[in-house]
Automatic annotation (TrEMBL):
It comes from the Eukaryota. This is Mannosyltransferase. The chain crosses the membrane at residues 20-37. InterPro entries: HODM_asu-like. Keywords: Membrane, Transmembrane, Transmembrane helix. It comes from Meyerozyma guilliermondii (strain ATCC 6260 / CBS 566 / DSM 6381 / JCM 1539 / NBRC 10279 / NRRL Y-324) (Yeast). It holds the Pfam family HODM_asu-like.
Length: 404
């Protein structure tokens, strides 16, 4: 019992001693009212604390959680297909460190679209005309999840971007392109293809197996720049990352990531951002690391860059959420892409990016193709940083919080 209640009780006994019955009755009523309020508050509280029916599941056996509803988002403020600029994610720090670097995500910010939507969409259309089977796949194990994903998008997109998407009884129509997608009642189309055609993102579906591993079972990977769905399809998280020589994966990431995937609940979506430097301006596939259709591709095949205008900043915003009905994990990868020369105009960026790059340990250098652009990017960033510092944009005056 809390302070207030014991205070009330004391005052009731005091009243009995002094025989002031009216005050005693008032005191008793007061106690009853307090209990009534407490009792009436307890009931809703119990139902608010939802039991996670999958907390003790056997791996690979998910019970659909029909109580979980994704919050409906408000419209993106003033969103306009021509004028809403891409978010300025600048996910580099003065010192690079290898961590999972995930942070909680607001459900409303699940999918980010902007004035590059049409450009991304056209890349996807053009590429799938040539090689759709290579760029998207929905295996039988991922099929229900892919349709659940489309249902989630059906709820989300028209509320978040009402000037771009409209609900139809069995799907979504696109108010800008005139496209219409039917899927609520099943479709012969690959559901992951439909999902990709709605978004700027690439998307992967990870399915939990009976051994607790998360395996890539469905995806639409169309603008990934330097990796191919066919190389990663059907692989578990660990092999996806080790086959690409992700630096220190085993030492610093594997255990934390595997635990995270198993434990992630539907109400706890997350995001992470990364960055790369690319030695050509091709968003869908970085030709410098090799022809997309070759057997093996990699930085080792790339020519060293010669000119700063060749260099692009590629940054991904990745989101991870678990869907309630199938329990599948949906991984979205949204790429932000701009010339280094444009990026370097921004206050404090040249010094911070330069310091970040210079702090890469050898494994990170190898993974990120450091030797192929360092002789061009380092002198350039140094010069730009000096110019900014002469104007007062020094590390000392840099805000501590900057965009991811
Ligand atoms: C918490 C989740 C995850 C973390 C912390 C993580 C971490 C990383 C890191 C550190 C890299 C190196 C590039 C970078 O700095 O981003 C990477 C690369 C990559 N990740 Fe992940 N990852 C996660 C989830 C996933 C998932 C679900 C997939 C499923 C498709 C995936 C696929 C890849 C691929 C394909 C690469 C490129 C590998 C290559 O270069 O061949 N990651 N990841
Ligand atoms: C966006 O720009 C295009 C081409 O200039 C134009 O046709 C369209 O009406 C514009 N849309 C909006 C919403 O302003
Ligand atoms: C969906 O399919 C069912 C049966 O296959 C049919 O009765 C129903 O009209 C369809 N709904 C739409 C919106 O197409």
């Amino acid at each position: 019992m809390n302070q207030t209640n014991s205070g009330v009780l004391r005052s009731v006994f005091y009243d009995l001693d002094s025989s002031k019955w009216s005050r005693t009755v008032c005191g008793l009523i007061f106690i009853m009212v307090i209990f009534a309020i407490k009792y009436s508050q307890k009931k809703p509280k119990k139902s608010v604390v939802k039991r996670d029916i999958n907390a003790n599941r056997k791996y690979g056996h998910w019970t659909p959680d029909y109580n979980f509803k994704t919050p409906t988002p408000p419209p993106y403020p003033n969103w306009d297909i021509n004028t809403t600029r891409p978010q300025p994610y600048r996910a580099f720090r003065h010192k690079y460190s290898i961590t999972m670097a995930i942070r909680n995500m607001d459900f409303h910010q699940w999918i980010e679209l902007d004035n590059e939507w049409l450009k991304f969409h056209n890349h996807k259309l053009e590429r799938t005309r040539e090689k759709k089977q290579e760029l998207c796949v929905t295996s039988p194990e991922a099929r229900d999840a892919a349709f659940e994903l489309l249902d989630e998008l059906w709820n989300y997109l028209p509320h978040r971007y009402p000037s771009l998407f409209q609900q139809t009884p069995d799907g979504l129509s696109n108010l800008v392109t005139g496209e219409s997608w039917s899927f609520k009642n099943g479709t012969k189309e690959d559901p992951m293809y439909i999902a990709a055609m709605l978004l700027q993102d690439d998307i992967a579906i990870m399915i939990e197996q009976e051994d607790g591993q998360y395996v890539l079972k469905g995806g639409a990977i169309m603008l990934a720049g330097f990796w191919r769905l066919k190389d990663k399809f059907n692989l578990p998280l660990s092999a996806i990352h080790t086959s690409g020589d992700v630096p220190k994966y085993k030492e610093k990431l594997q255990t934390g990531m595997e635990k995270f995937f198993i434990r992630q609940t539907c109400d706890k979506p997350v995001v992470r951002n990364n960055y790369f430097i690319q030695t050509d301006g091709n968003l869908p596939w970085s030709k410098s690391i090799g022809d997309e259709d070759k057997d093996v591709v990699g930085w080792y095949t790339a020519e060293p860059a010669k000119d700063i205008n060749q260099l692009y900043f590629r940054s991904e915003r990745q989101s991870l959420r678990r869907l309630p009905k199938t329990g599948a994990t949906i991984f979205t990868i949204r790429t932000y892409f701009l010339p280094i020369t444009e990026l370097a105009q921004e206050p404090y960026v040249p010094r911070r990016l330069l310091n970040g790059i210079r702090s890469w340990v050898p494994e990170v250098q190898d993974y990120r193709g450091y030797t192929k652009f360092k002789d061009v990017v380092e002198p350039y960033l140094e010069k730009m940083a000096d110019e900014q510092e002469a104007k007062g944009y020094t590390v000392e005056t840099e805000p501590e919080v900057y965009p991811y």
